[in-house]
Amino acid sequence: MDRVDAPATPATERVIMTITCVIRYQIDPSQRDGFKKHAENLISVIPRCGGHLVGYFLPYEGTNDVAWGLIAFDSLASYEAYRARLKTDPEAREDAAMMQTTHMILREERNFVEVVEGTFNLPSALGGKG
Amino acid sequence: MAAEGTAMTITCVIRYQIDPFQRDGFKKYAENWGRIIPRCGGNLVGYFLPYEGTNDVAWGLIAFDSLASYEAYKNRLRVDPEARENFAMAQTKRLILREERNFVEVADGTFNLPSTLAGTA
């Protein structure tokens, strides 16, 4: 939403996003705000290290301890290079250390998926109503 | 992009456990939603199929401005002929063994940021 270079065309037309890493976090529900801070830290870290940040999502209604992060890449090789960059990025390291200290993430699962063509980032066609 | 035209307070994250022998069938099911969801009032973030590793988990993310909008969307789906046909197809073929829905909100400033590293995604 704060994207600076918002394009008229969907992201899929500008960036090759073959693979998405879907991360399912089980968080400590008493540390939702801390997890939010973690997500905000990643706003600058992920794109700088080569990931296309699809979004970070926090519990809203119902289940209170599951959050999600989606990050897209053009190949598993790009994912691997991104992971290597994270390890040497000072802000990423600091964030990782914070996660270790606070134990806000109890568990995480990663799924590597590919987007179904023609389903990415389509706004509602009903005016004004989401 | 969806985020700018429409308020997207809430995202419904759907985790599908699919029949791994019917990945192609689920792909068709997802492609159909690509046409149906926006017309019924959902902002489609995307449908995602197994690629590497786990072979029976797929995802769909749909955003709304409120739970009321989600409810209105579900009502529209019930009367949309193509939506009904798509549900029926999934039922008949038993493409989906199980699904979970989580209602989440996007962390401000984290939605749809492309890589800023030249030449990579």
Tell me about this structure:
The complex is a heterodimer of chains A (130) and B (121). In chain A, a hairpin with a 4-residue loop joins strand 2 (52-61) and strand 3. Chain A contains four helices and four strands; from the N terminus they run H-E-H-E-E-H-H-E. Chain A is globular and about 40 Å long. Chain A has a four-stranded antiparallel β-sheet with strand order 2-3-1-4. Chain A has 130 residues and is of the alpha+beta class. The model of chain A is unreliable at 1-14 (pLDDT under 50). Chain A has helices at 11-14, 32-48, 76-88, 90-102, and strands at residues 19-27, 52-61, 66-73, 105-115. The longest helix of chain A is centred in the N-terminal third of the chain and has 17 residues, at 32-48. Chain B contains four helices and four strands, in the order H-E-H-E-E-H-H-E. Chain B has helices at 2-5, 23-39, 67-79, 81-93; strands at 10-18, 43-52, 57-64, 96-106. In chain B, a hairpin with a 4-residue loop joins strand 2 and strand 3 (57-64). Residues 1-5 of chain B have low confidence and may be disordered. Chains A and B meet through strand 1, helix 2, strand 2, strand 3 and helix 3 of A and helix 1, strand 1, helix 2, strand 2 and strand 3 of B. Strand 2 of chain A pairs antiparallel with strand 4 (96-106) of chain B.
List keywords for this structure.
heterodimer, A: 130 residues, alpha+beta, four-stranded antiparallel sheet, 4 helices, 36% helix, 29% strand, globular, disordered N terminus, B: 121 residues, 4 strands
